[in-house]
């Protein structure tokens, strides 16, 4: 476990070295994570919306035929809850209170179950298919008090604290519904406050995720649970690093007047062999050669490649493409 934590911390340091991140890139990543978190978190709870359908509902305000009103509201509500988490991410764990958690839960269940939204349960609950026994409802307020005291005072690795916050909170099961979604958002809030991107627990990991939590609730090892959570954080870090480092690499390339074939391939999103073939066929122009003999291209050839791709989509032959480019 120490090794994976060290790896995640090292990746975070790489990401920190790029801060502050470009605003346009941040907006793009935030939009992507909002849809992905909404889709996966709801899917874990049984929502049947696809990723594309979730995006249509959240981003376009459209309705999807054959899906229930509740599923539509779950998508909209979760996206709004993510926005609330974003506002809290600028604070620290010390600033968090039960009111913040209750508001988070209220957003998740608003218009679905207003009577219980943002309120602790007053009835006993069981998790379908689980042998774990949830606390008596009379104990919930005290357990939540103790939980918040622990959360605001916990010391140590923030990754472990975030994972433990999720496990502890979902094991109290303080609400009649929406416990999992609230717990995952809470975990991601702690991660974001510590400078990590949110963790996305994939739909395909649902059974492993649920089984690992139940194992811990039954007194067994939490190793598989921690492994799954940290794998999720690792994937998110890679998404951020790929986006940031690719952009910086592209910026460096586009600032040059002449570029090598590999750099042209990067900018155009094509393979080097394809670009070499098009050059041989006379579709692309070589501007010069480096002292080492490498072909150098003008950056404007990126636009030419885009034209070639569009003409290929129209089923133009190479001869027709060459004629079109020349005219």
Secondary-structure blueprint:
Layout: H1 2-16, H2 23-44, H3 51-60, H4 69-88, H5 98-109, H6 140-153, H7 158-172, H8 179-193, H9 206-217, H10 223-254, E1 258-260, H11 261-268, H12 272-280, E2 288-289, E3 295-298, H13 301-313, H14 318-326
Antiparallel strand pairs: 1-3, 2-3
Helix pairs in contact: 1-10, 2-3, 2-4, 4-5, 4-8, 5-8, 6-7, 7-8, 9-10, 11-13
Can you tag this structure with a few keywords?
327 residues, mainly alpha, Multidrug-efflux Transporter Regulator, Chain: A, Domain 2, 14 helices, 3 strands, 3% strand
Give a verbal description of the structure.
- The structure is a single chain.
- By secondary structure, the chain is mainly α.
- The protein has helices at residues 2-16, 23-44, 51-60, 69-88, 98-109, 140-153, 158-172, 179-193, 206-217, 223-254, 261-268, 272-280, 301-313, 318-326, and strands at residues 258-260, 288-289, 295-298.
- Helix 1 packs parallel to helix 10, helix 2 crosses helix 3 (51-60) and helix 7 (158-172) packs antiparallel against helix 8 (179-193).
- The N and C termini lie far apart (62 Å).
- 28% of the residues are buried.
Which series of helices and strands comes N to C? HHHHHHHHHHEHHEEHH
CATH architecture of the largest domain: Orthogonal Bundle
Calculate the terminal CA-CA distance, rounded to whole Å: 62 Å
Q: Let me know the largest β-sheet.
A: 3 strands, antiparallel
Q: CATH H-level name of the largest domain... which superfamily?
A: Fido-like domain
| Low-confidence runs | none
Global Rg = 25 Å
Enumerate how many helices there are, as a single number: 14
